Structures are given as C-alpha cells and as structure tokens.
Amino acid sequence: MTVFADPEILSHLPLEELQQQLNTSLQGLSQKEAGDRRLRDGENELTEENTSPVMQFLSHFWGPIASETAHQLGFKGDILDASLLGKVPLHQIGQTNEAIEAAAGFAQVFPEHKYHIVDVLQQRGHLVGMAGDGVNDAPALKKADAGIAVSGATDAARAAADIVLLTPGLGVIVEAIQESRRIFQRMNNYAIYRITETIRILLFMTLSILVYNFYPVTAIMIVLLALLNDGAIISIAYDHTRPAKRPERSNMPVALGLATVLGLTGLASSFGMLYLGERTFQLDRDTLQTLIYLKLSIAGHLTIFVTRTKGPFWSITPAPILLIAVLGTQGVATLIAVYGFFMAPLGWGLAGIVWGYAFIWFLVADWIKQRTYSVFNYDQPVYITSGLRKLHQWFSHPHLRKTN
To answer: Considering only CA atoms, which of 345, 348, 358, 346 is closest in space to residue 305?
Structure first.
C-alpha cells in the first residue's frame, strides 16, 4: 500500500483510488483485518507515534462523516465525540448525559463507549436498540433492551443479542420492530378483553345469586360459553393492528382501569337484559336462563371489537379470520338457544331482540371506551388522583418497590 503523508493529496483522490490507497472497501474490514490493523496502529488510540499518516488523515473526517450520515438519515442534533466520554469530571456528568440523549450520533466510538451510551439512555427512560457484529459489541448488545446481531456476526455477538439477522441488510430490523409492536398490541387487547369478561360475568352471576336468589346460567351454559369463547378468541393472534410510532410500554393502571369500566358497563347491560326478560317479556326461569346465556355470549364476543382499538371500533379493520370466527361461533350459539339444545328453546323473535340489544350496548361500550382513553391518556397517562399516578410508577419502575 502506498502511503501519502500529505492529506491534501488524499483529499483530491477519486473514491476508488482512495479505497485502494487505504486498502479497504465500502463493505468494511473483516475481523482478521481489523485485528491486524489494531496491532499495527495501536489500541483505541490515534497518536502521531503509532498511527500511519492515512489513519491520521481519516481521524480528522470521522466527525464530518458522522454528521453527513446523520443528515442523510434525517437525524437532528449534534455529533458527539465519544472519546471525550471517559474524561468527564464528576460535576459535569449530568450535562454529558443530556448531551448523549440529545446527540444525533457519535464518532470515534469504542466498546466501552457503546456500553456507556446504552446505559445512560436506559437510565434516562429510553428503550434502547443496539446492532452489532463483533466481539467488542457483545457487552452493549447484552445491555440493550433489544440487541440485534447482524448477518455474519461472531458467535459472541449472536449469543449476547436478542435478535439474530440471517440475511444481509438492516431493513429487516424495521419489520421486526413493527411486528413486535403488533404482537404487544394483540396481547394488550387480549388482556383487557379477558379482564373485562371476568368482571362482567363473575359479578353478574354472583350478584344475581346473592341478591335475586337466581342462577342466571346453568353449568352446561357455562361450558358452552367457555368453548365458543375460546374458539373465537384464538383468532385474535392474527388480527390486524397498527404499529405505534413510539415504543410500546406496559401500562397496567390504564389496562385495569379500562377493563373495569367496560366490565361494569357489561354488568349494567346484563342486569338490563335480566329486567326485560323477567318484567317485560315475563319469561319463565328456564327460558330466562336461555335469554341470559345468548346475551352473555353475543355481548362477550362483541367486546372483542371494543377492546381491539383505542379509537372507534371501525378505525382498524378486523382480520377476516377474526370476523369469521366471531360470526361463526355466535351463529352456533344462536342456533343452540333458538332450538333449545341443552336448554329451553328461545325462538327467533327473542333471539333477534337479544342481538339488537347487545349491539346497542356494544355501541355504548365503544363510546365509553373512547371517553375512558381520553382520561387515561394511553401515551402520556393523565390521572385524576395522585394514587393512580403512584400506582403507575409502581408498575412501570419495579426498583421503586424495594425502596418505597
């Protein structure tokens, strides 16, 4: 390799010739080449004594190259020289951490800097992703919330990472993030739905028995509710969701609060159906149980469409498999109730009334859900009382449980 001592000569070379002079390429160095150059040019240093003129020349452009890269990617902020991170006085640590958080990128980064940057961002409440391929990336990959080993990474990097890419390129990371957020939303929607149903059914059955001395459903009805419910709810794993623009976080106070509100709404609708069946339609106890069974089944499955969105139920189109599963199971439940399989027959007239009643309460529940989300702002929770705020902190920051 020919070495030019004068940086001015290097600055006027075409890209291909510059790569030839530097003995490198756009694909970067292999692990062996990087190790050889580290032995030749020194460990984590660029000094006049142990560095070639070419390396000295490039050291002046790492900052501008990083700045241009950040500009091309649309990042806003300054490029921080990572070599200064280890020399910060104690009284300036706070300012340095703020600079790390605001930086668009970092230049002259070594393994200890990567770990430090990830640690600082996590301490300031960020979810941090880290991509790497070498042994020196392993500590930061392990520390990050989402460690990503790229294609061709070393065994150490693969072992430390949470995600291992098998194909070249970083575009798949975007797909992985979007899919993980979709999965999180499906799990969160299912949790809200399950808690809502538990509150609605258990409270209704308990209060009906204690207050009215009336068993609203029989044992076989409970079994049918469980079977048809589980048969449809499995399809929620394939439901359409819209990935959030910001990282998702578990927010138990919001989930529990929304589920409680929807559960109490369902409880009110169930007692309304009980009142209509007993006082308006004047049904006998067996037929009244069938009426309640069909109402619980239909309203329960309609609740799926309430909990799956934060906006109106039509804001995100449900997956065809979910729609077919719900309509199919409720068709079976309606036929069972109408013709009286395992229970007293209800007839098509009363079954139609139950469907209309359940759909009206479905619209009411969807409206209540939107109003509830406006109080419990999902992205930035707004709490009515300080007690709920403390509850959110307790769930979001487990380390506070040991200190408080």
So the answer is: 358
